[in-house]
Amino acid sequence: MTNLFLGLINEFLGQPPNASEEGFQIDHILEFSHWFMAALFFGWSAFFIYVLIRFRKSRHPVADHEGVKSGISTHLEFAVVLIEAVLLIGFAIPLWGKYVNDFPDDKEAILVHAVGQQFSWNFHMPGPDGQFGRRDISLVSNSNPLGLDPENAAAKDDLVVLGELHVPVNRPVIVETTSKDVIHNFAVPAMRASQDSIPGHIIPLWFTPIKTGTYEIVCGQLCGLGHYAMKGTLVVDTPEDYQAWLKERAELAGTTVAPAPETVTPGAEPGPTPGTIPEPGAPKVGDPTGSNPAATPGERRPNA
Ligand code: CUA
Hints:
Blueprint: H1 2-12, H2 23-54, H3 72-101, E1 110-117, E2 120-125, E3 159-162, E4 164-168, E5 173-179, E6 184-188, E7 193-197, E8 203-207, E9 213-219, E10 231-237, H4 239-253
Parallel strand pairs: 1-5, 4-10
Antiparallel strand pairs: 1-2, 2-3, 5-8, 6-7, 6-9, 9-10
Helix pairs in contact: 1-2, 2-3
Bound molecules: dinuclear copper ion.
Dinuclear copper ion binds next to loops.
C-alpha cells in the first residue's frame, strides 16, 4: 500500500510501468528522489514566500546589517546534503555497480548488437550458430547497413533487422551497443535500461523482461535534427512467438546479409535458406576480430 502510494509520483511524472525484473530498484531510487525533491520544492517555496512577506520594505525600511542569528538554515542545509549523500553513496552508486558488474550468465542470456545511426537502430543477431559475423566498414551500404562480410562463415546466418527487436520473456538480454556516426543512447524506459552508444566502442547493458508486450526503444542523447524520431520497438514475446519471429526473419533475409526491411524483396538475393532455427542457445561473442563494430571514429554514415 505504502509502495503503491510512493510509486504514484513516478506515474504522475510520466514514467512508463516497469517491465523488467531489476527495474523496481531504479524505481525505488526515483520514487525517493522525486518525493525528496517535491519536499524541497514546496519547503523552499514556502520559505521564500514567507521571507518576501516577513521582510517587506514597509516593515523594514532600513536594512539590518547583522542578518539572521539563528542556525536553523545551516542545519537544514546540512540535512539536505546528508540525505543526498546517502542517496548517492548508499543507493545509487551500489546499484550502478551492480548493473555494470553483475552481468547475467552468457549461456542463459540473449546477446544482441544494437548499432545506432542518424536516425535509427540496427539490430544484429548471431543466428543459429551463435557467432556474430565479421563486419567491415568498407562493406557498409544501404542494403548492408552494418557491413556484414558475406564471405565470412559466421556471418552467413546472421540477422540484421532495422528498428524492431524481438526477445523472449523471462530471459536476460545483453545488448552490446555502438554507433556508426555520433553518440546516441540506447534506452528502453520500460526496462529501466539506458546506455550511451559511442562510435568505436562496444558497450554492453542488460535487462530481464518479465512482461510480454511492445515497448519503445528511444535514443537518449541529442544526436541531431532527427533525434526526436530515432525510435525503435522492443517486442517481448513468448518463447514460441520468439522462435516464430526468428524463423520469419531468417526466411525474409534468405541470404547471408539481411537488407533493411523497406528494401526486402523475398527471394531476390540468392543464397542458402536457413532451415529451422534451433533453440537459441547462448549466443557467444565470436572472436574479437569477428565482432568488430562497423563503426570507427570518423566513419561517415551511408547515404540515406
Ligand atoms: Cu540518436 Cu538521439
